[in-house]
UniProtKB/TrEMBL annotation:
N-terminal signal peptide: none
Reaction catalysis annotation: L-kynurenine + 2-oxoglutarate = kynurenate + L-glutamate + H2O; 3-hydroxy-L-kynurenine + glyoxylate = xanthurenate + glycine + H2O; an S-substituted L-cysteine + H2O = a thiol + pyruvate + NH4(+); L-kynurenine + glyoxylate = kynurenate + glycine + H2O
Keyword Lyase: yes
Name under which the protein is recorded: Kynurenine--oxoglutarate transaminase 3
Pathway: Amino-acid degradation; L-kynurenine degradation; kynurenate from L-kynurenine: step 1/2
Highest taxon of the lineage: Eukaryota
Cofactor: pyridoxal 5'-phosphate
Organism of provenance: Cervus elaphus hippelaphus
UniProt xrefs under Gene3D superfamilies: Aspartate Aminotransferase, domain 1, Type I PLP-dependent aspartate aminotransferase-like (Major domain)
One Pfam family hit: Aminotran_1_2
Domain Aminotransferase class I/classII large, first and last residues per copy: 106-295
GO process annotations (BP): L-kynurenine catabolic process
Amino acid sequence: MSLKFKNAKRIEGLDSNVWTEFTKLAADPSVVNLGQGLPDISPPVYVKEELSKIAAIDNLNQYTRGFGHPSLVKALSCLYEKFYQNQINPNEEILVTKPVDGKKCSSSDWTLDPQELASKFNSKTKAIILNTPHNPLGKVYTKEELQVIADLCIKYDTLCISDEVYEWLVYTGNKHFKIATFPGMWERTITIGSAGKTFSVTGWKLGWSIGPKHLIKHLQTVQQNTVYTCATPLQEALAQALWIDIKRMDDPECYFNSLPKELEVKRDRMVHLLESVGLKPIVPDGGYFIIADVSLLGL
């Protein structure tokens, strides 16, 4: 007799999504998966060297000390201070665009509609999820747009969860602003970052959340009872790598500065290739994804 087991209702359908579909289609070796790709960008040499050195220290191969390794916490705090000095609900159509016919389409053509956004807020609005630079559109929110969001968050006492994992991948003519640095926003903002995106080590699966103690303590509770801990050697290696670049943030050799320049060349090449086969790409101002209009293919 065979037994039939069913998934819990709360996870039904999670095994069927666009990523699993792409992966199956790309199993054919002749297919190039443009949905996820196969990154060939090597992380900085010093990042790999730090991991090698840390792995050789025995006491750093055990459980992480506390919710975050002290070195990592200190490095992130310094990074955030340096920066100080120097997705909205996907079910709601808050971003609108008015592309000009014949004009190359850019992610900056998607602009925030202040009235539409304001209509979504009320006394029961608990939180808003912001994603800038945006994945996958590549939009980098302007200072003025972020101020609109900040004003609404303050007016309705709303929490802002700001996904800024692509904060260093911003291309020429654009600037990333952290909404947590806006007046009145630090105490109501959780900023999310990513080692994978910052240092091109997506396989490390290591990230962070920065915010005031009264908000972060709740994230620590969830972390403690779900993931529990992250790989200690990876945290320490990341901390040391951050220290290296924090000390040279104004230097062109700093990875925060060199990576977007390297990827901008690849972005422009990909845009040209897509246009050469009759597609109309949306040129991203940040991040490393490109969306293209395929309607001309008649599919």
